[in-house]
């Protein structure tokens, strides 16, 4: 089956390839297609395909649409058209709800990444969550956390991104300007910890990957607290395992997504489409792809 890409979002891994060359991000080679956050339209179907009709919008589930987990990042979101082999509904292609704009639908993939990270923390209604980073994955995680009934605070260094998070109903803290711990205490109160005067943060979602934030979590020693790592940080770390054991803290890795995440993400997008559409700051024509990715490498743009 042939699909035509309508809109594609730029992932941080795409930026990494642009900035640092092949072998980074999703290890994209020169001359190879890439991009994996997109919404597409069915362009042609063969007689054997019964689940789809020409003109329907679809979300290509990267792992299965590319026929390999290793090639998910090179699916081809930035190409004009793609051939999907063995097209199957709710497997490698999902029908996009009619009420979604193309821009919001193109955020499905990063929202599945964030939702998977949140689910890895096993959130319970009434718990408190702290999200590190107010870019796409961080904000998506904030929406997912609230979906599971948790109170959320988002941390970042950009007032612009924090104002956006605040407009979504999240607590916010600027890690460069604010007294972070006091702001956390004001929002969450004191938690059940092996140390005195620690903010009551049950779940931390790290969408940045900065070692200092991991250490802050370990030092807090909040009983039964969880730290989910979705941001990339390859630096070696010294961890006090005994302290983790005494506080029953958990360090959890989260990579990618699972098919069960798509339905939850569609629900989150449907319930919050007006707010989520604000996350799309600029739209460029396909012909300006190179300059668009270049602009995406500049945090001021």
From TrEMBL:
Keyword Oxidoreductase annotated: yes
Keyword Oxidoreductase included in the entry's annotation: yes
Residues spanning the signal sequence: none
Species the sequence originates in: Lactobacillus johnsonii ATCC 33200
Alcohol dehydrogenase-like N-terminal domain sequence ranges: 2-88
Gene Ontology molecular function terms on file: oxidoreductase activity
Pfam families with a match to the protein in the record: ADH_N (PF08240), ADH_zinc_N (PF00107)
Protein name: GroES-like protein
Alcohol dehydrogenase-like C-terminal domain: residues covered: 137-263
Record keywords: Oxidoreductase
């Amino acid at each position: 089956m042939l699909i035509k890409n309508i809109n594609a979002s730029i992932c941080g891994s795409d930026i990494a390839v642009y900035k640092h060359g092949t072998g980074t991000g999703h290890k994209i080679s020169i001359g190879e297609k890439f991009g994996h956050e997109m919404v597409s339209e069915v362009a042609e179907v063969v007689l054997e395909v019964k689940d789809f009709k020409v003109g329907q919008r679809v979300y290509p589930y990267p792992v299965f649409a590319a026929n390999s987990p290793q090639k998910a990042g090179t699916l081809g979101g930035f190409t004009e058209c793609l051939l999907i082999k063995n097209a199957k509904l709710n497997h490698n292609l999902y029908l996009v709800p009619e009420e979604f704009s193309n821009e919001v639908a193109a955020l499905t993939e990063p929202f599945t990444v964030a939702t998977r990270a949140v689910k890895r923390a096993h959130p319970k209604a009434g718990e408190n969550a702290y999200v590190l980073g107010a870019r796409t994955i961080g904000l998506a995680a904030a929406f997912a956390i609230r979906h599971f009934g948790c109170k959320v605070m988002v941390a970042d260094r950009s007032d612009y991104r924090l104002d956006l998070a605040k407009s979504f109903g999240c607590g916010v803290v600027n890690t460069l300007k604010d007294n972070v711990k006091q702001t956390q205490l004001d929002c969450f109160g004191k938690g059940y910890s092996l140390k005195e005067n620690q903010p009551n943060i049950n779940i931390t979602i790290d969408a940045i990957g900065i070692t200092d934030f991991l250490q802050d979590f370990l030092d807090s020693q909040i009983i039964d607290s969880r730290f989910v790592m979705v941001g990339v940080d390859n630096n070696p770390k010294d961890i006090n395992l005994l302290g983790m054991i005494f506080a029953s803290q958990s360090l959890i890795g989260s990579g990618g997504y699972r098919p069960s995440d798509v339905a939850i993400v569609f629900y989150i997008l449907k319930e919050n489409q007006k707010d989520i559409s604000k996350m799309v700051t600029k739209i460029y024509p396909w012909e300006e792809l190179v300059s668009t990715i270049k602009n995406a490498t500049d945090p001021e743009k």
